[in-house]
Amino acid sequence: MWSQRLCVWAAISCLSFWLSPQPATTADEPRRPNVLVIVADDMRPDAFGAAGNNVIQTPNLDALAKRGMMFTRAVCANPICTPSRAELLTGCSGFRNGTLDFGRPIHSELTTWAAAMKKAGYRTTYVGKWHNDGVPTLRGYERTNGLYMGGGGKWQPEAVDWKGMPVTGYRGWLFRDDDGTLHPERGVGLTPNISKTFADAAIELIDSDDPRPFMLHVNFTAPHDPLLWPPGYEKQYDATEMPLPPNYMRQHPFDYGNIDGRDEKLLPHPRTETMIRELTAVYYAVISHMDEQIGRILSALENAGQADNTFVMFTSDHGLGVGSHGIRGKQNMYEHTIGVPLIIAGPGIPHGQSNPAQVYLRELYPTTCELTGIPIPESVECRSFARAARGETRTHHPAVFGYFRDKQRMIRTDRWKYIHYPEIDREQLFDLANDPHELHDLSMAAMHADKLRELRIRLVHWQRAVDDPALAKSSQVKTP
């Protein structure tokens, strides 16, 4: 009888071991590196100094780029908040994780980024915006601090943005605790100084006495609308001195699938030069304020003695139009929107280098696993680009793909971009090497007919591989 009890006890002990988070190190091993992930909201890939922007002031992001690797051709794949963030959390495309649009839950069988880190012994924490189903603590995060999400509509006051227009973004959003307690007293909807609140919460988690390595995921709302002048930044940028984007247009030449969307209603049509200069001034001010708060987080990391043993990753869920191509918001396949800023710094990452490798935002998940020595879960669909992050290669994908609802599909190679609009069966072709601002559509040029056909076929093959529902709406489905 005693031997039977011993066997049962041993079996339970083994099962408990495998189901419980495992320590990241043993007594004889060095502590695994920490991971600090900082995600902006609606930030263009060219909206910081190190990316070549000589107008905006982002000293902390620029310093981070000097001590790390900057990826100049990173893409988000699906340029709207919830789907892009779901891809980041799961390491899978929206076709695989179930979130091609708002209101779709992440498939429960997928191992999330935080869950993989937690299983490996990391203290997984979350700060700021949450825009997916459920809550972070159901997605692998042990704890949140400064969690910001919807649910406070009854407290939402009437509010206007920087230009006096009624607020539409983040209405009813507020801070809450992990036990569900809401905090309307901290403000409902975006407030001018909200980036500081997120930074304060992140610093508290960095200062924790927990000896385990940490994964800290910080999600700013900046520079998403409503744009509000941050305190002390009201005169940071003179609108009359703001340059227009090189691909500024008064109006997009056709309905690309979101011409009447919420983002586009934030500015009247056509978009005048004055309007875009004023928008750029406040957009840059919000980013500069966020940059200041990022500097405070990085200083806290330094003060805690963890700077040299932490991978710092900065990016955004997608970019934004801000007048480029006559577009105010996201929801398009142009470089200013499908592209994202991406900087990685930390142990073994070369300093001050840029890399043109085509990488997806969602690939930060497996890349982090490889950099920290954690097994990549089988549910992860995409590839690690750790070799590129370490400077060992300058290539990753020969082509990347983008999608927005059933309205747009894209393939981008090292030089060319092809965009198809299934619902109106329209095409665009851009030579990015000679036309980086996508001003000259070559889809009707006879000399590029072969390239157009090649990319069209490659896009259709990819759509078939992912079982893309938009393919049924396209005449290209019959393309051999």
Features:
480 residues; alpha/beta; 10-stranded mixed beta sheet; 4-stranded antiparallel beta sheet; 11 helices; disordered N terminus
Describe this structure in words.
- This protein is an alpha/beta fold.
- The protein is 26% helix and 15% strand.
- The protein is built from 11 helices and 14 strands.
- The chain has helices at residues 2-19, 59-66, 81-90, 94-97, 113-119, 194-206, 273-303, 335-338, 364-372, 386-389, 449-466; strands at residues 34-40, 68-71, 123-129, 143-149, 174-176, 182-183, 214-219, 310-316, 342-345, 353-355, 400-404, 408-412, 416-421, 426-431.
- It has a 10-stranded mixed sheet with strand order 6-5-4-3-7-1-8-9-2-10, sandwiched between helices. Strands 11-12-13-14 form a 4-stranded antiparallel sheet, covered by helices on one side.
- Strand 12 (408-412) and strand 13 form a beta hairpin.
- Helix 6 runs parallel beside helix 7 (273-303).
- It is globular and about 65 Å long.
- The N and C termini lie far apart (71 Å).
- The model is unreliable at 1-22 and 24-28 (pLDDT under 50).
Count of discrete alpha- or pi-helical segments spanning 4 or more residues: 11
Poorly predicted runs are: 1-22, 24-28
What is the radius of gyration computed over CA atoms, rounded to a whole number of angstroms? 23 Å
**Approximate strand percentage:** 15-25%
Could you tell me how far the N terminus lies from the C terminus, measured between alpha carbons in angstroms?
Answer: 71 Å
Question: Main β-sheet, in a few words?
Answer: 10 strands, mixed
What share of residues is helical?
A: 25-40%
Oligomer: single chain
Structural class: alpha/beta
Shape: globular
